Amino acid sequence: MRKKLKILWTREALHRLQEIEEYISRDNPSVAIEFVEKLISVAETLVDNPQKGRIVPELTIENICELIHKNYRIVYLIKKSSIDILTVFERHQLLKKEEISKSIN
To answer: Which CATH number is 94's domain given?
Structure first.
């Protein structure tokens, strides 16, 4: 049986979650908290199946993938012993390489 990988959140990803929560909170604080918790729980499902996401189209790097939840992209890096959540952002935007470059170098 394969060892479960740990989920690690980068500073960038945590910062983006905070921004998402603050933005949604302007209209509805309780919905904002629920939505961010849902994004986190979607990311946590990677523990059981890291390959369930697709390769990020802008990068085409085999071990950098993304999950889509509603209008958000959860970008992650698959490592030997962990899954690093690199960033979370709105689906209509392109991934900015500088957002994740510190985390993958």
So the answer is: 3.30.2310.20
